[in-house]
Amino acid sequence: MLELQGLTRRFGAVTAVDRVSLSVPEGQMLGIIGRSGAGKSTLLRMINRLTEPSAGRILHDGRDITALSGRALRAWRADCAMIFQQFNLVQRLDVLTNVLIGRLSRRRGPLARLGALLGLFTAEERAMALALLDRFGLAETALQRAETLSGGQQQRVAICRALMQEPRLILADEPIASLDPANARAVMEALREVNRGQGLTVLCNLHDLAAARHYCDRILALQAGRVAFDGPPAELTPARVEAIYGIPEAVLAAEGAPARAALVH
Amino acid sequence: MAAGAAPLRMEAAFRAARRQRRAATLLGLAVLLACLLASAWVAEAHPARLLEGLPRIGEYFHRILPTLRREALFAGAETEGSLAFWFYRLDSWAWLLFETANMAALATLMGAAAALALCFVAARNAGAPRPLALATRRLLEALRTVPEIVFALILVWAFGVGPLAGILAIALHSTGALGKLFAEAVENAGAGPWEAVRAAGGGWAEACRFGLLPQVLPNLLSYALLRFEINLRAASVIGFVGAGGIGEELYTVIAFNHYEEISAIVLLIILCVAAIDLLSERLRHHVIGAAR
Ligand SMILES: Nc1ncnc2c1ncn2[C@@H]1O[C@H](COP(=O)(O)OP(=O)(O)OP(=O)(O)O)[C@@H](O)[C@H]1O
Ligand SMILES: [Mg+2]
Questions:
Q1: b/e sequence B2-41, b meaning 16+ C-beta within 10 Å
Q2: Residue B52 domain-assigned?
Q3: Within its chain, how far is the Cα of A81 from the centroid?
Q4: B198 CB near a chain A CB, below 8 Å?
Q5: What is the pLDDT of residues A16-42, one digit of tens each?
């Protein structure tokens, strides 16, 4: 169970995230929606402490995440894998090494870490990475440089890297915003498969309402950093959307969700 | 009417802007010329002295030229006018050149290794603590501001005459010069992968190694090779202060006015530097094409 209590982040005069309180049960797929600048990324990045909260607390299974530092913080980051809009693969490295990066946090002791720095990974680690790649139909690409893959393939490699961490939850920041419809669907299917199949909690920022409705168990809408809606997709009626965003849903959809058409089968 | 007026108005505006630009250019040129004259006056580079000195350069070159006779060109080292006579100490010079190249290579390697470690600390985007980053940047600045020959003077005093002082001197300067270039390359690298490694629970060193290094490695190698070429030239003169290499020999023959030997050694240095230049350029292109 992940709990946020009055979580707040200010950037100068801007309050990006404003007293967000929320609890996410194990195994839930939570979609976070909201317009550009609503604070979605900031919220996710506070959970793995890439961004430090200004106020409030984060608890995971009762443990105070906001107080972690050093090795404990690294361990927590390994527990909550992040997936980025721009994939953030190391383009010049091969796919296999990119996936193995997900294993770095499991290295304990100076010798093991030095080995990793020299690029020495064990046969078991490689086998694990290859099995993951195979699961997402990418085994053949293992020795190619990441930059030679399509966007959709790269995002699936990023998912493999995330799973390599053996995480407790996955934080996905607009994982499909730079993908074409077919690839967007493949990536969302992969995330849902991980959620349903392995029971991993997934927090997923989405621009696209249709995708959020289709794939998520629960939707959280942010508006200027505050929670404007929190409930199951069925309750997010067009009328409520208009109340939250101030514009009709059709206009909102036209604002920029190329993946929409493909996601609604 | 208004439709016809706009183009005319814009043409007038264009001319006005052009007039202004030309005036600014002329003013700039005038300032530049004034600065040139002022600096020439300060440096005592009077035209008269320049004209006076020019022939003497020619004379010097004439003196250091070897006297070669065509019929004896390939004769043995005892025959005056032969190539072998000109390069009569080729064996010891070749050894000194080899030592010089080794000094340059070792110094480049040491400098590059130190620069590699420091560049991630100095770079603005690699997440090192700010005071540490600032201190490192100042240190690199200091290292590259001091010329090799000054380091060499100090180190010869400390370690005695010999190549060790030269190697360390060049390595120190290289650390400063390369560290700055490396750090700039790192700053131009995308931050995404670095952040991804941190988000995956990797530490600072892992984030730099996997998130940044692969992005910049071809650049760094290319800079290091370029530095090797520069260091080779530095190593050939650093011997002037007793820090090893061919420079010591060159200094001696210049000091004793052994004119023909000066030209022989200079020619050897030029050939050697050119050969290594070519080689490292090849290597550099290869590296840029296929690094990982
Ligand atoms: N590092 C930062 N420095 C200053 N302001 C920031 C920073 N990061 C975010 N902000 C501000 O915080 C607010 C929320 O940004 P955030 O990136 O969380 O929004 P978002 O919902 O993810 O938007 P998008 O859909 O465009 O990704 C914005 O006003 C943004 O300008
Ligand atoms: Mg965002």
A1: eeeeeeeeeeeeeeeeeeeeeeeeeeeeeeeeeeeeeeee
A2: no
A3: 7
A4: yes
A5: 999 999 999 999 999 999 888 899 999
User: Is the separation of the CB atoms in A137 and A167 below 8 Å?
Assistant: no
Q: Is the distance from the beta carbon of residue A39 to the nearest atom of ligand 1 less than 6 Å?
A: yes
Q: How far apart are the C-alpha atoms of B157 and A98, rounded to whole Å? A: 50
Same domain, B27 and B150: no
CA A104 – CA A113 distance, rounded (Å)? 8
Q: Is B14 a domain residue?
A: yes
* Judgement on whether residues B135 and B255 belong to the same structural domain of the protein: yes
Distance from CA of B138 to the nearest CA of A (A): 28
**Mean pLDDT score across all residues of chain A:** 89
Domain count, chain B: 2
Cβ distance A93 to B197 less than 8 Å, yes or no, reads no
Which residues in chain A are closer than 8 Å to B221, comparing Cβ atoms?
Answer: none
Q: Do B160 and B240 share a domain, yes or no?
A: yes
Can you give the pTM of this predicted structure? 0.80
Task: Residue B240: give its domain's CATH number.
Answer: 1.10.3720.10
Verify that B94 and B39 share a domain, yes or no. no
Name the pLDDT band for A262 (thresholds 50, 70, 90): very low
CB A9 near ligand 1, within 6 Å: no
Task: Compute the distance between CA of residue B243 and CA of residue A262 in angstroms, rounded to an integer.
Answer: 72
Asked whether B124 and B184 are in contact (CB, 8 A), the reply is no
Q: Are residues B167 and B29 in the same domain?
A: no
What tens digit of pLDDT does each residue of A87-122 get? 999 998 999 999 999 999 888 888 888 888 888 899
Among the three residues B11, B29, B45, which one is the final residue of a domain in this structure?
A: B45
Would you call B199 and A77 a contact, using CB atoms and an 8 Å cutoff? yes
> In the structure, what pLDDT confidence band is assigned to residue A249 with cuts at 50, 70 and 90?
confident
Summarize pLDDT for B250-260 with one digit per residue, the tens: 888 888 888 88
- Residue B163 within any structural domain of the chain: yes
Domain carrying residue B41: 2-45
Q: Verify that B29 and B157 share a domain, yes or no.
A: no
